[in-house]
Amino acid sequence: MHVSAPRLRIAALVALLIVTGCVTHLPVIPRKAEAPPFERPSFKRIFIVILENEDAGKALDQPFLKQLAGQGVSFSNFYAVAHPSQPNYMALVSGTTDGIHGDLTVTVDRPHLGDLLEAHGRTWKSYAEDYPGGCNLSPRIDHYVRRHEPFLNFRNVQNNPARCANVVGASHLLTDVEAGTLPDFALYIPNNLHNGHDLGIASADRFLAGTFGPLLSDPRFTTDTLFIVTFDESEAHSDQNRIYTVFWGDSVRRGTVADTVYTHYDLLRTIEEAFHLGTLGTHDTDPDTRPIGGVWH
Length: 297
Prior knowledge:
This protein has 297 residues and is an alpha/beta fold. It has helices at residues 5-19, 56-60, 63-71, 85-94, 113-119, 155-158, 161-164, 172-179, 201-212, 219-222, 264-274, and strands at residues 45-51, 73-75, 78-79, 124-128, 140-141, 144-145, 167-169, 185-189, 225-231, 246-248, 256-258, 262-263.
């Protein structure tokens, strides 16, 4: 069979894009069944830690992550929305992976969660390990990588020093706890030594226990806070991208296992509904995207 030169070039290009991580792979997520109704929760602050590249079952086998699941609400059918990493971070804060093809550095012009929070008088911050501040847009600094810090990918953050100042080094967290200046919404982005990317899930679990174990006993951090640990994506593509996700705090029904299918888009919608933010008009408004219910006091 004769294959034309243009087709050969296209096939070669697709192969190159796949090898270099420039193609977003969208897994087939199980069809969502009807979800429990959303009852507005009582927390006033949301704090999310994002870890890297592990299957839900292996994460749940780790001592500290297992402890968190037993003390909070764990989700047995929570799914990331893409492979590789970066599209998932962007999905969580903007409701779409559109225009994000792999892990290469991007800059996008579209609304995001920070816009909604500011429009409603709420504060936000992202604590990133090894990040030096100053709106540094470098793709890598020590063990920090920009592809894991989604807010720096938005042009309206990059071009506004006051907004860019919301992305800070991780050392600012303890300063904010002690000063009582934690934001209404926060991401915590461990570096690649501590998020499971380079050294595996057991190392990430030890880091999480050492960093957040003491904070979860400190009322300056826990009062009125919903603490969330989730992952960007699974390691095994055959598991449909099912990931560990736990909600922890006084506002949740502790020891609950929720089996409804949820994704990063549903988590975004939950944040929007809990804080009365409205929506971004992306996948956060899809018919099968819904705020997470049935887990609140």
